[in-house]
Amino acid sequence: MLTLYGETVSSRLLLGTAQYPSPKVLGEAVKASGTQILTVSLRRETAGGGTGGQFWEMIRELGLRVLPNTAGCHSVREAVMTAKMARDLFGTDWIKLEVIGHHDSLQPDVFGLVEAARILSDDGFKVFPYTTEDAVVGEKLLEAGCEVLMPWCAPIGSARGPANPDALKSYRAHFPDTPLVVDAGLGRPSHAVQVLEFGFDAVLLNTAVAKAGDPVAMAKAFAGAVEAGRLAFEAIPLEPRDMAVPSTPVIGMAVFE
Ligand SMILES: CC(=O)[C@@H](O)[C@H](O)COP(=O)(O)O
């Protein structure tokens, strides 16, 4: 079970709703993924290019927890305004906060992020910040009122998977008691297994499912991956060893007559 801002869900997969080939495929992929939390953007193109009433209606009908996001916002002002519109539209104080700092890499502007997180937390929002794996920034986000951190593992949409696994492991070790969701850059189910094995609490992804050859099958594959990764983490995997260790114990000497 995963608890985020006091709400408990059983799925450790948070799914984005953009770029699907059609609303129908989106709906089927969401069901196949088993997700209980959907992130929706107020600014970006939605499934099949449709925006507005029909899309929001469909999201509501799925009956899942909605985590609106500020994707596409490049300033504190824009992000705060978008968050407030999302609160009115969806009736939720949850917000996935993105303040993009770099056009090419879509890297977060961590200074703007902390500032926006503080403004929104003071206004009663429950902020899920999309951030880098920098622990100092993580500390500042906690001080600003965040109770969940969402470090990237690679640039949004890159599908590269954990670009810096050691940094992610250090991040996990630095925040042992904070729910940590790896957000962005995952490309394959094996990437989700990897970060769940590191001890991350969940993953948030969009492109890897929406742009897969078969989004519904890929959603199902990710559902299995997060379960496998979590189970493996709880089972305490072996650390890699430098030397060979015989896996079959040998007692005494074989006797040949
Ligand atoms: C939809 C959303 O919130 C993205 O901004 C998010 O960061 C996911 O990234 P990927 O598309 O790389 O999974």
From TrEMBL:
InterPro entries associated with the record: Aldolase_TIM (IPR013785), Thiazole_synthase_ThiG (IPR033983), ThiG (IPR008867)
Keywords: Cytoplasm, Schiff base, Thiamine biosynthesis, Transferase
Keyword field contains Transferase: yes
Subcellular location: Cytoplasm
Pathway field: Cofactor biosynthesis; thiamine diphosphate biosynthesis
Catalysed reactions, as listed in the record: [ThiS sulfur-carrier protein]-C-terminal-Gly-aminoethanethioate + 2-iminoacetate + 1-deoxy-D-xylulose 5-phosphate = [ThiS sulfur-carrier protein]-C-terminal Gly-Gly + 2-[(2R,5Z)-2-carboxy-4-methylthiazol-5(2H)-ylidene]ethyl phosphate + 2 H2O + H(+)
Keyword hit for Metal-binding: no
Protein name: Thiazole synthase
Organism the protein comes from: Roseibium sediminicola
